[in-house]
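Protocol step 4 of 6: structure prediction from sequence.
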Amino acid sequence: MRADGRKKILVAMSGGVDSSVAAALLLKEGHEVIGAFMKNWSEAADPCSGDCGWHRERADAVRTAAHLGIPLETLDFEEQYRREVVDYMIREYASGRTPNPDVMCNRMIKFGPFLETARRLHCDAMATGHYARVAVSGGPGVRGSGGAAESATYRLLVGVDPNKDQSYFLHRLNQEQLRQTLFPIGHLLKPQVRELAKEFGLPNADKKDSQGICFIGKVKLEEFLAGRIEPKPGIIVTVNHEAVGRHDGLAHFTVGQRHGLGLGGGEPYFVVRKDMATNTLYVARGSDHPALFSKELVADDIHWISGAAPSMPFECQARIRYRQPLQNVTVVAGERPGTLKVAFAVPQRAVSPGQFCVFYQGDECLGGAVIC
C-alpha cells in the first residue's frame, strides 16, 4: 500500500452488475484497479449464448473494464474448477449427499488460485462483488478499502441487504484470506447497487442476476449428472414401508424434494430419506409430515473463521441452507471426534446431508460444518 493509502487491487469481474460496481467504487476511491475474469467452465450447448456461456460473460466484463479504463486479465481456472468443484459435486451426489458447489467454488477457486494471482501481480488485496463485509477486531469498525495490521483478527459480517447476503457461501474463508479481501458493495442494498451502476454508466447496468450453479448456470440436475454417475434404479417406499414406485438413481434426489418422483394421485409425496445400502428412496405424503423434520443434526468437517473453536456448549444462530431465516441453536461437541451436535429450538424441515450448517452470532458469521 502506498503512503497515501492507495492500493493495487485485483477485482474478480464476472461480467455481472455487482462485481462491476465493486470495481467502479474502488476506482472512485483512487485505487489502482485491475479487473480479472475467471474462465472456469466451458461446457455449454452454445457457449456464446447459453446460460453458462463464458464467452458472453467475458464480453460483458471486457466492455465494463474498457468503460472504466482499467486492464482486464483473463484467468483460466477450468482444470482447478473441474477438479475441486465439479468432481466434488459428482462424488457427493454419487454418495447420496447434497453438495453446495457455490461454497466450494469460493473456498477453492475465488479465494484460492485467484488470490494467488493477486499476490503474483503484487496486488495489496483482491475484491469481489459479494454481499458481505469484513470487520477488524480492535480497529475503527467495518473495514472498507483500508488496511489493518496482519496480527488483527478479521471477522466476516453479513451483507447489509438481507435478501442478498452471501456470508453463507463465504463461511469457509480463513484469516489469511479475509485479511487480503475487500467486499466493496457489502454495505449496500441491491437497488442501490443498480442505481450506482447507472450513475457510473456501466454497460451492464440492466443485466439480470445470474442463477444456478456457480459458473455453470441453470442446468437440470439429471442432465448434468447423466454420463457422470451410472444410473442405479431402485424402489420408492413410504415411511410405512409401502412400495409406491421406482427411481432411476438416488443421486437425483434430495431430502424435501417433491418434483421428479413420478408419483401421482392425492396429496403429494416428499423425499424424507435415502438409504444408499439398499438403494431405497423413502417418501412421505404432505409437506408437513413429521418425518421431514429434525430436532438436531450431526456435522463434521468443521471450520471456524477465527481459527479457534468456541467454548462448548454454546448458543448461537444457524442456517442449514442459503437464505433460510436464522434459527436458534445449541452447539455441543459430537460423540465422535471431529463432529458437532446441533440442537434446534424449533425442529427443522429437510435437513440434507452434504449441505452446510453455518453459524452466526448477531451480524457475524462464525463458520460452519458439513451435515452428516
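Step 5 (inspection) to follow. The chain is about 25% helix and 30% strand.
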